[in-house]
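Protein modeling request. Please complete all fields; requests missing the sequence field cannot be processed.
Requester role: graduate student
Desired output: 3D structure, token encoding
Chains: 1
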Amino acid sequence: MYLCVLHMKKIIALKLLLLLHFIAFSTPRFLLPVVNEIGKWGYIDSSGSQIIPYQFDLAYQFTEERGLVAVSVNGEYKYSFIDPNGNLIGDWKFTEAHPFNNGYALVRFFIDALNLTWGYIDKQGNFSPPISCSDARSFNGGYAAVEKLTGWGFINKSFKETIKGQYTTVGVFSEGLCAAAVGRDSLQRWCFVNSLGQQITTFKYIQAGKFSDHLASAGIEIEEKSGRKVLKRKVYGYIGGNGDFFIPAKFEEAYDFNEGLARVKQNGIEMFVDLNGNTVITLDSAVHAASFHYGFAAVSTSDGRAYFIDKNGNIAYDYNFVSITDFFNGYSFFIKRNGTQGYLDYNGNIIWKNK
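Delivered output (355 residues):
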């Protein structure tokens, strides 16, 4: 009996080791682009160790386990992708390329000596059929916007047209809805459509964002009397899925919700509101903020400072920065006043720096 129990414990221990081994090797590796003193780019991991040598003329952050890189050929950039081991995907054939999103990357390449076309590749390097369009965008929410002679429409992941090209411009799909506009300049008006192309709202907005937390920013034009004059003023708020304003249109600016907070401007002052429209953070008049990512928002000031604030509005990670990016995949790229560049993780640790 004792030997049987001991044998079972060994089997369980072996299974646990195999599981940990599988987890260790199946967890996506996230790499960060870095540049050396002669302008060549490579990649480090989250510990700051060099993983892919300096060899590219441009390198971008990894998305979906693929990094967008470029080399200069006769003064022009040629783009491709690499996996976390540095293996090339797609060869150096793209004149334009965008990071992976929703499983595909948007690329542009020559189909013959004279003609360029748009297409998409998956993470294994398989190509979609060439897309017959004049312009195209990356996939978001399962759909990609493409522009044809008749206007902007959408294709699905089978590269079939799902919404005919008919709009002057469009946003991106999120939570099953997308903003679409007709007209130009002061006459441009926006509505929201679903993935079947059905119009959910009328063309009544002067601007529209994307849905997040079931709310989307939208702007309208209102008339106000000033003596005998009637003045038109643009105001912004947040609508629900039926197109009605859930947070009244009263702001001078309104941006998309992210992590439950949205940045707005009222009376020249930037602030953050919650999903009920309550003011959570009010910023100084000399401060400009970005959206929240990983619990922090990047802030820049009129005197050239940059730092992060938390969701209580308290200053975090004020390390004498002059420039910082949003936390992307948990990391922010920074430049300090003394010229030092590097990466900061969302716990406040500097993992790599270089002058």
